[in-house]
Amino acid sequence: MSWHEFLHMGGYGIYVWSAYGVAAVVLITNALLPVFRFRALRREIERGGQR
Question: Would you call 8 exposed, middle or buried from its count of C-beta atoms within 10 A (0-12, 13-18, 19+)?
Fold first, then answer.
């Protein structure tokens, strides 16, 4: 099996790889959003809770 055949996946490659891409974006977003929110909350607390 060549790399081209593997990536093509019998004609379904575009669907398979796009599903992997969407899943990766969702997982990365779920990992990073809490970090950004924590940093923003910490900055707000350090400023004395002023908005």
Answer: middle
Position 19 in a domain: yes
User: Which structural domain range is residue 35 located in?
Assistant: 3-46
- Split into its structural domains, the chain has a count of 1
Buried b (16+ CB within 10 A) or exposed e, 27-37: eeeeeeeeeee
* Pairwise CA distance, residues 10 & 42, whole Å: 50
Tens of each residue's pLDDT in the chain, 51 residues:
888 888 889 899 999 999 999 999 999 999 999 999 999 999 999 998 665
Q: What is the pTM of this model?
A: 0.71
